[in-house]
């Protein structure tokens, strides 16, 4: 028996080292029956940069490519070897880069193509791979493609989804069906020049492309190749399950979640999401990437996909029943969607095991606990959870994803005023309800230091306000401390080089309803165990049924509030007290 005492709020974790476990789990090497694939991405930490909020190099209050370039050394020093940039393409910025007017140009607020090329050159020097956010579902209504389509220019007539609509009893023309935008309201907007409705699953300024038109696929293939030629290592593909819709445009049935017919929650989206053709397009783009790599050489160019869907539908992105592969991995959002501050050990174990159980054999798992669309870990699960969550994500098998700022425990700024709010869905619902849906709080500028605007910019006003806690919570301060969220995070990235964490089998088990363990085993190597206490109370646990032939546990990484330091050995389990 030993005690796990957690004195703050939610989670406790400690990564320890057990030298005898590998001998007791020889059958666990079954997962390595196929030779370990040493492609770079399979054990990478992908660091998501939201450029608009990362670093401002020209003091206009907006982050830019020059700012990213200036901070590449920080990423390298931390141990990051891959980063993906949220959209940097030319855009009217209605949805802050997800409404693209030119897929082959850099948005002027972010810099120039020369700035991007300099970024690639420096990233290559530092061995950091650059992944771009690819947004294929729609364009901006300012895109030349859309303008030509609206004008019925030959070759562009069917680049988008157009429809005459229907005439109601009053003789008024209305949309062809009840489809609603993700951002509220009808998913159809009337275009007076073309005299037809066009489909937009997001804002009216983001018309959906028509992928049933081969010319659209060809155009996007060309975009992908353009950026591969520029030196990027792959793409994060946005909102992939929106790419195809029912060609018959049938009404979607009510979901029963709300009576508001303009809400995206009103309908069960059986005609606008997860159509089989989506997977076929992903297979096509996977082939394009592999063919490019084969022809040009170098490390694998990869694709990771974003879709919020049922786990069985998500797993189809890995490969279909014929073994045809899609994205190298679909993002695993279940730790974002299914876990909260009320979750206990059983919930965590179930969520982790669900992904591992459904994932096709010989594919790579991934773990996401934050991004620009969801509340930050410290705000969603509690500030004391930061180290524990980073430990968990970094010691699970496969890819780990970090949203910029999670390494220092940044928090959402929930008190952004209506006047300072810029997020489209928040603006759509109005000043009474905007805080319920706004994504601005998790997008505030990175907190580099305690200086003006947290060291992000010297401008008098930044595009979003800086969180007022920046003087107490910033990178510079944490770097000066003997132990901090940042130092723990950096240690974890070094620990991930351990062969056990790169190749070993994973066992996840709830010791009781409050405590669970993640064990990584690899024959011939000392095993690694992460222990997590999900309660706010001290827990006495017996690990005898989890660990065989216990002889010694050695602390590899410990959180900011623990009494144990790295390298400390607990010869007797009774002596091990974990304080977080």
From TrEMBL:
Region annotation (Disordered) ranges: 422-450
Compositional bias ranges of the Basic and acidic residues kind: 433-443
Any one Pfam family match given in the protein's UniProt record, by short name: Alpha-amylase
This enzyme's EC code(s): 3.2.1.20
Keywords: Glycoprotein, Glycosidase, Hydrolase, Signal
UniProt similarity note: Belongs to the glycosyl hydrolase 13 family.
Protein name stated in the entry: alpha-glucosidase
Organism: Stomoxys calcitrans
């Amino acid at each position: 028996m030993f005690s796990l005492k957690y004195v703050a709020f939610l989670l406790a974790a400690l990564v320890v080292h057990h030298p005898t476990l590998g001998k007791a789990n020889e059958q666990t090497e079954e997962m390595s029956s196929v030779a370990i694939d040493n492609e770079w991405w399979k054990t990478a930490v992908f660091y998501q940069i939201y450029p608009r909020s990362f670093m401002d190099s020209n003091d206009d209050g907006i982050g830019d490519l020059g700012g990213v370039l200036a901070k590449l050394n920080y990423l390298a020093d931390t141990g990051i070897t891959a980063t993906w940039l949220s959209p940097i393409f030319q855009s009217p910025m209605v949805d802050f880069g997800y409404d693209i007017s030119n897929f082959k140009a850099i948005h002027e607020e972010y810099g120039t193509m020369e700035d991007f090329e300099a970024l690639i050159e420096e990233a290559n020097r530092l061995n950091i791979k650059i992944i771009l956010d690819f947004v294929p579902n729609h364009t901006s209504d300012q895109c030349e493609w859309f303008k030509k389509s609206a004008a019925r220019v030959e070759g562009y007539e069917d680049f988008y989804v157009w429809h005459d609509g229907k005439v109601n009893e009053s003789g008024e023309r209305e949309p062809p069906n009840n489809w609603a935008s993700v951002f509220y309201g009808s998913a159809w907007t009337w275009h007076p020049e073309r005299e037809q409705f066009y489909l937009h699953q997001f804002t009216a300024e983001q018309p959906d492309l028509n992928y049933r038109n081969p010319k659209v696929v060809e155009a996007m293939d060309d975009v992908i190749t353009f950026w591969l030629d520029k030196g990027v290592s792959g793409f994060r593909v946005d909102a992939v399950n929106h790419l195809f819709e029912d060609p018959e445009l049938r009404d979607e049935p009510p979901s029963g979640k709300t009576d508001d017919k303009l809400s995206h929650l009103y309908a069960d989206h059986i005609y606008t999401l997860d159509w089989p053709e989506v997977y076929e397009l992903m297979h096509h783009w996977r082939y394009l990437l592999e063919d490019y790599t084969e022809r040009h050489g170098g490390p694998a160019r990869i694709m990771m996909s974003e879709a919020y869907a049922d786990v069985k539908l998500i797993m189809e992105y890995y490969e279909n029943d014929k073994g045809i592969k899609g994205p190298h991995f679909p993002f695993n959002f279940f730790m974002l969607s299914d876990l909260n501050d009320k979750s206990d050990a059983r919930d965590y174990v179930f969520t982790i095991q669900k992904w591992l159980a459904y994932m096709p054999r010989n594919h790579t798992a991934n773990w996401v606990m934050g991004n620009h669309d969801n509340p930050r870990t410290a705000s969603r699960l509690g500030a004391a959870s930061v180290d524990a969550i980073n430990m968990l994500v970094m010691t699970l098998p496969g890819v780990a994803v970090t949203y910029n700022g999670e390494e220092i425990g940044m928090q959402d700024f929930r008190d952004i005023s209506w006047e300072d709010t810029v997020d489209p869905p928040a603006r759509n619902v109005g000043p009474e309800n905007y805080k319920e849906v706004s994504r601005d709080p998790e997008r505030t500028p990175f907190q580099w230091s305690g200086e003006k605007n947290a060291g992000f910019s010297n401008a008098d006003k930044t595009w979003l306000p800086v969180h007022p806690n920046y003087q107490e919570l910033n990178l510079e301060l944490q770097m000066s401390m003997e132990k901090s969220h940042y130092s723990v995070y950096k240690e974890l990235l070094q620990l991930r080089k351990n062969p056990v964490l790169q190749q070993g089998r994973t066992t996840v088990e709830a010791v009781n309803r409050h405590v669970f363990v993640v064990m990584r085993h690899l024959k011939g190597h000392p095993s690694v165990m992460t222990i997590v206490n999900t309660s706010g109370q001290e827990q006495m646990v017996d690990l005898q049924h989890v660990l065989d032939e216990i002889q010694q546990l050695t602390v590899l990484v410990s959180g900011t509030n623990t009494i144990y330091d790295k390298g400390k050995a607990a010869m007797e389990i009774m002596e091990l007290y974990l304080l977080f």
